[in-house]
Write a structure and sequence with these properties.
The chain has helices spanning 2-44, 48-73, 78-95, 97-112, 152-156, 183-202, 235-257, and strands spanning 120-123, 126-133, 137-141, 147-151, 160-162, 164-165, 168-178, 208-217, 221-231. With 260 residues, the chain is α+β, with helices and mostly antiparallel strands. It is elongated, with a radius of gyration of 30 Å. The termini are far apart.
């Protein structure tokens, strides 16, 4: 009896020792994989959101291998593994459905790449510069100079407009002028002097001169579309110069209205 008990203890101790060694080996492989990923990401200049996705894959794979190793060394029946997985899946499904939806949507955003980090985008009614893309949220640096975290489910279900092309943010906004003034007067006495004064301060090799043209007209007003050109990743400049140009347009509009 004592011999059987001793054998059982030794056997369990042997299995425990093997599982500990296996987990240590798995941990070192995991850390080495992360270091290798970081090195290759720097070498290949990978986007941060791609690195985050690969890091998550490594973590999930490591967790799965660790669980399988423990079940194997302790001869735990596979039905228990399947049953536990099903129970865990059900719990996650009921308790964390929103999180799971965000994760699925996050993979969609990472794979489809409708935008990249530092792109300026409009997502539904939201807009801003993309600062981070992770599995749950996309972070936007908004025109209010705040950081907004948008759930990836909202990103996936919204209309996305990417305003960044060829390394430049091409931002547009509209301004309407009444029919009290001719198109020639609006262009020569409001828009052109406003852009000229604007360029004296802001236009250089990085910020190109704004463009403006008549977009549409109805019985109430003429609407002009203005385009600003700012280097990618410089949303802070955009948030500064847009109100400056608007202020200059209003300045010359008031002068024309007063007959100066």
């Amino acid at each position: 009896m004592y011999e059987n008990l001793t054998a059982i203890i030794l056997n369990e101790g042997y299995r425990l020792g093997l599982s500990i060694i296996a987990l240590i080996v798995i941990y070192f492989i995991y850390k080495a994989s992360l270091r290798f990923l970081k090195k290759q990401a720097t070498k290949l200049d990978l986007e941060p959101h791609i690195v985050n996705a690969l890091r998550l894959v490594i973590r999930v794979f490591t967790l799965a291998v660790s669980i399988i190793a423990i079940f194997t060394f302790f001869d735990i029946p596979s039905d228990l593994f399947v049953g536990t997985s099903a129970l865990l899946g059900a719990a996650l499904g009921f308790g964390s459905s929103q999180t799971i939806n965000n994760i699925v949507a996050g993979f969609y955003v990472l794979v489809s790449q409708p935008f990249k980090v530092k792109d300026y985008v409009k997502i539904g009614d939201l807009e801003g510069q993309v600062e981070e893309i992770n599995i749950n949220y996309t972070s936007l640096y908004t025109p209010t100079f705040n950081l907004l975290k948008v759930p990836n489910t909202q990103v996936m279900n919204s209309r996305i407009l990417n305003l960044t092309h060829e390394g430049v943010i091409k931002y547009t906004f509209m301004v309407g002028f009444s029919h009290d003034f001719t198109e020639a007067d609006v262009m020569s006495k409001i828009i052109e002097p406003a852009i000229t004064e604007f360029c004296q301060t802001y236009c250089n090799l990085d910020v190109r001169p704004p463009e403006a043209y008549l977009e549409k007209a109805d019985r109430f007003e003429k609407t002009y579309l203005f385009r600003l050109f700012v280097p990618k990743g410089e949303a802070k400049i955009l948030y500064t110069i847009e109100p400056e140009l608007m202020q200059l347009l209003m300045k010359y509009f008031d002068k024309l209205r007063k007959g100066n």
